Automatic annotation (TrEMBL):
Residues 105-114 have a biased composition (Basic residues). Residues 180-194 have a biased composition (Gly residues). TPR repeats lie at residues 202-235. It comes from Brassica napus. This is (rape) hypothetical protein. Residues 195-211 have a biased composition (Basic and acidic residues). One of its GO terms (cellular component) is cytoplasm. SUPFAM superfamilies: Thioredoxin-like (SSF52833), TPR-like (SSF48452). Keywords: Repeat, TPR repeat. PROSITE patterns: TPR. Residues 28-119, 134-211 are annotated as: Disordered.
Length: 667
């Protein structure tokens, strides 16, 4: 009795049991099989799964009218299996006839039921046989290991070699390795996985790195160049390529090291020298850039040589301006050098920061320095202004830190600069200044904390001898004057601190409080209004401003103050003025006297500056009786009355003496 395969017409969602039952069906309907549009006799061997010692019984060869031909005349399965190099792999088995090979099969994606869909879906024996029946049970669902059914599991006439059915495997049946999810029971075509075999050729690795570099993936390029270098450490091209990736990542100093290594490996490597010249130009090291641009008599690129020459010119002009303390010119030349290509030069940035510091733009100087990357432990031997570049950068950083009151940081950086370049007189000078200022500040703070304000003021003054433009020391000394009740000195030191560092909040607060103690409410209000804008959420500043405004209003109301020097023309009015509460100053002048005319504007200034003082003017030419009663013999003469009593008389005083006496009697 011939066994013919019956092809089911049900869709692919048929259960496994139904398809298995159909494969065991011995009935044949020619119309049912031959007229199927996807019919083709499958002739793939089944990979044995279950162990058995029974020999397989060959199925009777059948005939088919399909285009795939019959199984007769084909080589045995045993000979086909013998040709395989890996018995555990799954592979397509070609037809015995020329017309039935795999090349004539048209793939149909998604087709699961016939060979016309390309590589067939092969189910393992374990999927059909429950474990309890694996030992040799019979039935539609538990075929004997020695009996291989026909159908779309194993084509008619294709019987596996005896004994191979006993080999069980639980490995996924895929054509390549990897961790991807390839589905259940499917054979995945080669090339579908992402895993790529690793190459041992450093040139291939370098090319892969070049591809990553061109795509802008510099970190991946660096990784690949590192791998190439590990495979061939003596190849200078790999070092040069790694330098390019480092430079593109902004790591210029590391790039320089790689190029230097490339040049060490091959001193005549032109590309590495060119890359070094470009890197040194960006770092602002003109001398090094020129050396590598013109190495071994090579003809340099004219454009690059021009850029190096321009950088040298700006550096020379910058040095000359620095010697002359022309700090604005220094900034101009630094900006020009950066625009010429030295866009990553720490020493040029530090030079600009130094110029800003000398121009009392301390916050801008600090902001400028913040753009410099942290210096590494391997320092360049290039110099600027006679110092090693890294030492110069640290010196500037130390001075800016000191100006902002970061004395500990300043001392650390100055000491680091000394370790780098101990032969530089300027570095030695900076370290000495920073050390002495830091000591003075520490000593002053200790004395102030212990309540020894006078000694503390002296200690801060010692620090100012080494750094005459340290706003922090001025502000600290002003605090001592305030505690001692010398408010005019407190105002002076706060004003000096603010000239050095405009917007210094602590100095502004202290000066406003000192103005209040002096009764100069207009000045106090002005400072508090500035602070209110800078510190909008500070309740203490808001309260101080309100108190100053109230005191100012009360003072003006009580004194009838009108910010002008009042003229007195008769003796009665003079006696009334001298009896006013507080301080009254009388200015005796003559319109024909040059000294009187010269000092008159200053009297108006004092009137605005000291609103608690009453200023009166007497013209001796028009008030002869009053001048005679007061015994005025020479002009200008000044008399100060306090609470109705004369306390001071001055003849032709200078501005300072006059103001000092006004302040003295206000206290």
């Amino acid at each position: 009795m011939s066994h013919y395969r019956r092809h089911s017409l049900e869709p692919s969602i048929d259960s496994i049991t139904n398809r298995f039952r159909d494969s065991l069906n011995f009935q044949r309907d020619d119309d049912d099989v031959i007229n199927k549009p996807d019919f083709r006799e499958l002739n793939y061997p089944l990979k044995p799964r279950v162990s058995s010692s029974a020999a397989a019984t060959p199925a009777a060869s059948g005939s088919s009218s399909s285009s795939s031909g019959s199984a007769s005349g084909k080589p045995s399965v045993t000979s086909q299996l013998a040709k395989r190099s890996h018995s555990g792999e799954l592979s397509e088995s070609g037809s015995g006839t020329p017309g039935s090979g795999a090349k004539n099969r048209t793939p149909k994606p998604g087709h699961r039921r016939s060979a016309s869909a390309g590589t067939p879906l092969i189910y393992s024996g374990l999927a059909f046989s429950p474990v309890k029946n694996r030992g040799g049970g019979s039935g539609a669902t538990s075929p004997s290991p020695g009996v291989v059914p026909s159908g779309n599991i194993c084509p008619s006439g294709k019987i596996p070699k005896t004994g191979m059915a006993s080999r069980a495997s639980v490995k996924p049946e895929t054509l390549f390795t990897g961790n991807g999810n390839y589905g259940h029971g499917n054979i995945v075509r080669g090339g579908g996985g992402k895993a790529k075999p690793e190459t041992r050729d450093p040139e291939e690795v370098k090319k892969a790195g070049n591809d990553m570099y061109r795509k802008g993936n510099f970190s991946e390029a660096l990784s690949l160049y590192d791998k190439a270098i590990s495979m061939s450490p003596e190849n200078p091209a790999y070092r040069s390529n790694r330098a390019a990736a480092l430079a593109a990542s902004g790591r210029l100093k590391e790039a320089v090291k790689e190029c230097l290594e490339a040049v060490r490996l091959d001193p005549s490597y032109v590309r590495a020298h060119q890359r070094l010249a470009s890197l040194y130009l960006r770092l602002g090291e003109a001398e090094n850039a020129r050396r590598h641009l013109c190495f071994s008599g090579q003809c340099p690129d004219k454009a690059e040589l021009q850029r190096v020459q321009t950088l040298e010119k700006h550096l020379r002009l910058c040095s000359e301006a620095r010697k002359m303390s022309d700090w604005k010119k220094v900034i101009t030349e630094v900006d020009a050098a950066i625009a010429n290509g030295a866009d990553s030069s720490p020493q040029l940035v530090a030079c600009k920061a130094e110029a800003l510091l000398r121009l009392h733009q301390i916050k801008d100087s600090d902001l400028c320095l913040s753009t410099i990357q942290r210096l590494d432990h391997q320092h360049t031997q290039a110099k600027i202004f006679g110092m090693l570049c890294d030492a110069y950068v640290l010196c500037v950083q130390a001075q800016v830190d000191m100006a902002l009151g970061r004395f500990e940081n300043a001392l650390v950086k100055a000491e680091r600069a000394m370790k780098i370049d101990s032969n530089s007189n300027e570095v030695v000078s900076v370290l000495n200044n920073v050390t002495n200022v830091a000591k003075a500040r520490t000593r002053g703070n200790e004395l102030f904390t212990s309540g020894r304000y006078s000694e503390a003021s002296v200690a801060y003054g010692e620090g100012l001898k080494f750094d005459a433009f340290n706003s922090v020391l001025y502000c600290n000394r002003a605090a001592c004057w305030f505690k001692l009740g010398v408010w005019d000195q407190s105002v002076d030191d706060c004003s000096q601190a603010l000239r050095i560092q405009p917007g210094y909040t602590k100095a502004l607060l202290r000066r406003a409080a000192s103005y209040g103690k002096l009764g100069r409410w207009d000045d106090a209000v002005r400072d508090y209004e500035v602070l209110r804008k800078e510190l909008p959420g500070d309740s203490e500043v808001a309260e101080s401003l309100q108190r100053a405004l109230l005191n100012k209003a009360e003072e003006h109301k009580y004194l009838g103050y009108n910010n002008e020097v009042e003229e007195v023309s008769n003796l009665d009015k003079f006696k009334t003025a001298t009896s006013l509460p507080g301080i009254s100053m009388f200015y005796f002048k003559s319109t024909s006297n040059r000294q009187s005319e010269a000092i008159s504007p200053f009297i108006n200034t004092l009137c605005l500056r000291y609103p608690l003082v009453h200023f009166f003017m007497v013209d001796v030419d028009e008030s002869l009786a009053l001048a005679k009663a007061e015994s005025i013999k020479k002009v200008p003469t000044f008399k100060i009355y306090k609470e109705g009593e004369k306390v001071k008389e001055m003849v032709c005083p200078n501005h300072k003496l006059l103001e000092d006496n006004v302040k003295h009697f206000l206290l």
